[in-house]
């Protein structure tokens, strides 16, 4: 065993003449322990939220989305799109017609987005997980229904359990001219809401209806706003995207799920790293307390240092003792913190110890998703800070070494 490591280990567990050194060392280790555990827990919770949010977004954000670069709509009945629909890799091929509309319920009004979808949209088995009330029904017995977002439901006070409650949807007529009665400039249709879904603010102002209802309201018999494609498991989405881009030409955008929600991914990433940096500063403060405890340890062990130097120990060995002392304190606190953080995360996953309050929440307990990379990141962060702090302490330990010899 390395001499410096052996002596450092003896100093770590031995009693000091000055009792405050034990207390300060314990506080330093406790600070690293708490900081490491907090980092593991917070990062895992952020991973959990990210996983839940992205899974909810995936219900309305397809794996690939095709939109026209010029204009709001395009013709989907081309040879390429017809053949693409028959591609064996495709799980669902949804035609979408989308437009801003005026919604009215009783005396209240709201500007929302109408999203008419073809039947393939309902192949997504996860749609029911977004439903806060009612069901995700768009058509039954030849009658059209609408599923509305929570923002619309709360703004208009829609009661989906009232069979006589109809939602009025207004859309400007094509080529409308000024009329004595302004209502004549709008196409108005009534529809019964069947359910309320909740995802996030970007989606919760949407009314989802059948494509046929949207075509009738918007007077758009052929064109679509976009094509939404989802693929069977195991499909290489990036390769498919590249293939479509090569065949489809420069008239269309082909967006992946990340490209459709760039702001969401950026926000999640910024929040994650912001919290990581804040907790890292806490760790820095905790680890740098080691400098104080090691400085006091040097004072306490002046006689030992003088004896070692008289026996031929050089500066490198003396520095090594206090360097490894600081590393042991940091690593012990970090490993203990990681273990406790891991145990807490597992318990949170299994039993949901800490629950979320509020109504209309998709999840009732804080989600947790463990990633091996987070454990490596936390350990590496503590290790780097500990090396810097222990290095500073080690350099201070050999200052005034000649005076220590004289004291002996």
Overall description:
With 408 residues, the chain is an alpha+beta fold. It has two domains: 3-57 and 264-407, no CATH class; 64-257, no CATH class. 51% of the residues lie in helices and 19% in strands. It contains twelve helices and eleven strands. A hairpin with a 2-residue loop joins strand 5 (139-140) and strand 6. The longest helix is centred in the N-terminal third of the chain and has 40 residues, at 19-58. The two termini are 28 Å apart. The model has no long low-confidence stretch (mean pLDDT 82).
What does the secondary structure layout of this molecule look like, with pairings?
Blueprint: H1 3-13, H2 19-58, E1 64-68, H3 79-85, E2 90-105, E3 108-117, E4 131-134, E5 139-140, E6 143-149, H4 150-156, E7 167-172, E8 186-197, E9 206-210, H5 211-218, E10 226-231, H6 237-248, E11 252-256, H7 257-260, H8 262-300, H9 302-310, H10 315-351, H11 372-397, H12 401-407
Helix pairs in contact: 1-10, 2-8, 2-10, 2-11, 8-10, 8-11, 9-12, 10-11
């Amino acid at each position: 065993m390395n001499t410096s490591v052996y002596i450092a280990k003896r100093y770590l567990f031995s009693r000091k003449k000055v009792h405050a050194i034990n207390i300060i060392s314990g506080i330093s280790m406790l600070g690293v322990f708490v900081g490491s555990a907090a980092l593991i827990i917070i990062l895992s919770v952020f991973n959990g939220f990210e996983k839940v949010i992205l899974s909810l977004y995936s219900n309305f954000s397809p794996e690939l989305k095709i939109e026209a670069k010029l204009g709001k709509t395009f013709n989907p009945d081309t040879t390429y799109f017809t053949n693409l629909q028959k591609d064996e890799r495709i799980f669902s091929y949804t035609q979408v017609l989308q437009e801003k509309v005026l919604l009215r319920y009783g005396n209240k009004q709201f500007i929302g987005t109408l999203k008419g979808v073809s039947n393939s949209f309902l192949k997504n088995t996860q749609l029911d997980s977004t439903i806060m009330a009612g069901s995700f029904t768009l058509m039954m017995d030849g009658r059209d229904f609408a599923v509305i977002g929570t923002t619309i439901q709360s703004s208009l006070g829609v009661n989906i359990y009232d069979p006589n409650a109809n939602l009025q949807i207004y859309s400007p007529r094509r080529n409308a001219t000024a009329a004595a009665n302004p209502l004549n400039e709008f196409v108005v249709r009534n529809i019964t809401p069947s359910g309320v879904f909740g995802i996030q603010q970007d989606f919760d102002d949407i009314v989802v209806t059948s494509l046929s209802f949207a075509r009738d309201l918007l007077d758009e018999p052929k064109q679509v706003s976009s094509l939404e494609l989802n693929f069977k498991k195991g499909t290489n989405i990036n390769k498919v995207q590249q293939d479509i881009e090569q065949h489809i030409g420069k008239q269309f955008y082909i967006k992946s799920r990340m490209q459709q929600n760039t702001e969401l991914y950026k926000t999640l990433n910024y929040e994650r790293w912001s919290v990581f940096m804040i907790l890292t500063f806490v760790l820095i403060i905790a680890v740098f307390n080691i400098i104080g405890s090691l400085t006091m340890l040097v004072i306490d062990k002046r006689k030992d240092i003088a004896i070692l130097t008289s026996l031929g120990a050089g500066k490198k060995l003396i520095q090594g003792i206090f360097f490894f002392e600081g590393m042991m304190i940091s690593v012990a606190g970090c490993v203990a913190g990681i273990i406790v953080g891991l145990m807490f995360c597992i318990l949170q996953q299994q039993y949901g110890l800490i629950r979320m309050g509020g109504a209309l929440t998709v999840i009732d307990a804080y989600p947790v998703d463990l990633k091996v990379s987070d454990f490596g990141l936390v350990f590496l962060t503590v290790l780097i800070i500990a090396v810097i702090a222990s290095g500073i302490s080690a350099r201070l330990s050999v200052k005034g070494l000649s005076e220590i010899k004289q004291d002996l």
